[in-house]
Amino acid sequence: MTRFSFKSIGPGLIFAGAAIGVSHLVQSTRAGADFGFGLLWALLLVTIFKYPFFEFGMRYANATGETLLDGYKKLHKSILPLYYVLTFATMFTIQAAVTIVTASLAQMLFGDFLSVKIWAMIILLISTLILLIGRYRLLDSLMKIIVITLTVSTIIAVVLSFTKNTTTLNFQQLIPNNATEIAFLIAFMGWMPAPLDCSIWQSLWTVEKQKVSNSFKGKSPLYDFNIGYALTIIVGICFMSLGVLVMYNSHLTFSNSGAEFSNQLIKMYTNSLGSWSYLIIGIAAFTTMFSTTLTTLDASPRAMHKTTSLLFENFDYFNFKFWLFLLTIGTSAIFMWFSTELITLVKIATIISFLTAPFYAVINYKLIISKYTPQEAKPSVFIKVLSWLGMAFLIGFGLWYIASL
Predict the structure, then answer these.
(1) What is the DSSP string of 240-264?
(2) Percent of the chain beyond pLDDT 70?
C-alpha cells in the first residue's frame, strides 16, 4: 500500500496554481461584484462536471506512465494536429493575459517606478530562469509554498471581510437573461476552475513527478489531484465572496481590463477594511497570479514540445527550451504592440475554451475507457455517469450560448 506524504504532493498543487488565476481573481470576483452569490450554482456545477475529465489526465498518466497526448495519438490521427493548432492559436494570448495582471499587481505592491510593461518583462524573465535552472523539481517545490500562501491569505481576507459585513447576504440563484450576461457566464465557466485542456498539463506533470519521485504512484496521485482540485473550488468561492462583500451593490463601474479590475479590487478592499489590510489582499492577489504565470509558462512549452515530438518523430529541434523562448518572445510582442486589444483577445480565448471543452471531455472519456487504459485503472460506474452528465452540461451550455448570439 502506497504511503501518502507531503513530499508526494506535486502535480495537484501545480494544477491548482495554474487554475487559480484570472478565472478566480478576476472572473469569480467579478461574478460576485455583479451578481452577488447568484452565480454560485455555475461555479459549483462547472467544477463538479469538469472534475472527471481533469481526473482522467492524472488517472491515465498514473496507470500507463504516458501523457494524454500519447493516448490521443493512439486514439485517432486527427486529434493531435487539432490540439496543436488550438494550443498555438491561444497560448500567447493566455500567457499575456495572466502576466499583465501579475505585472499590474507587482506595480501596486512594489512600486510604480517601473511601467506595467517593464514589470511584465521582469516577471517573464524571473519565471523563465526558474524553469530553465530548476526545471520540474524547483517548480514542484515552489508551487507548494505559493499555493499554500495564496490559499491562506485569501481565506484570511474573506474572514476579515465577513467580520466587517453588516448587510444581509442573499443566496438567491440567478440565470443570465441577455447576451452580455450570457457571454460573461460562458467565459466564467470556460476558465473555471481551468480550461479542460489543462487535463493534458496534469498528465504531463504527473509523468514528470513519477520521474523524480518513486513514491508517486498508486493512490498518491489521486490524493494529490483531489487536494489541488478542492483548493481551486475553495479559492473560487473565496474570491466570489470578496466580490460580494466588497463590491456588490457599490454602484461603481468596473473595468473590463483584468489589470485595472485587480487594482480596483485591492483599492476597494483597502477602503472597506482599512489600509492595514492592503498587504493581505495584495499577497493573495499577487501570489494567485504569479502562480498562474509560472505554471502556464511551463505547461504550454511542455505540451507543445511533446506534441511536436509525437507528430514529427526523430525531430527534436523544437524542444522545451525552443517553445519556452518562443512563448516568452511572443508574449512580450503582445505587450508591446497589441496590449490595447488584450481584453478582446482574452474574452475570445475564454469563450473558445468553453466551446472546445466538449471536445476534450469526449476524447478524455473515450481514452480512459479504451483498450489503451489498463482495466484496473478504468473509472467506476459513478465517475462514468458523472462524465455523461458533464458532457451533456458542457454541450448544452455551449449550444445555449451559440443560440443567444
Answers:
(1) HHHIIIIITT--PPPPSSHHHHHHH
(2) 90
Topology (CATH) of 6-404? Amino acid/polyamine transporter I (1.20.1740)
> Which of 307, 362, 300, 299 has its CA nearest to residue 52?
362
Average pLDDT over residues 333-345: 70
Q: Would you state the cell numbers that stand for residue 62, as one nine-digit string?
A: 498514473
- Write out pLDDT tens, residues 145-197: 888 888 888 888 888 888 877 788 889 999 888 888 888 888 788 788 988 98
| Concatenated DSSP letters of 272-319 | HH-GGGHHHHHHHHHHHHHHHHHHHHHHHHHHHHHHHHHHSTT--SS-
Instruction: Report how many helices (DSSP H) and strands (DSSP E) the chain contains, helices first.
Output: 15, 0
Structural domain boundaries of the chain? 6-404
- pLDDT value of residue 383: 96
C-beta of residue 374 within 8 angstroms of C-beta of residue 63:
yes
| 1 pLDDT more than 50 | no
Cα 346 from Cα 348, distance rounded (Å) = 5
Residue position matching grid coordinates 512600486: 111
For residue 257, pLDDT over 70 is answered with no
pTM flag (> 0.85) = yes
Report the residue count for the chain.
405
**What is the SS3 assignment for 160?**
helix
Residue with cell 483577445: 345
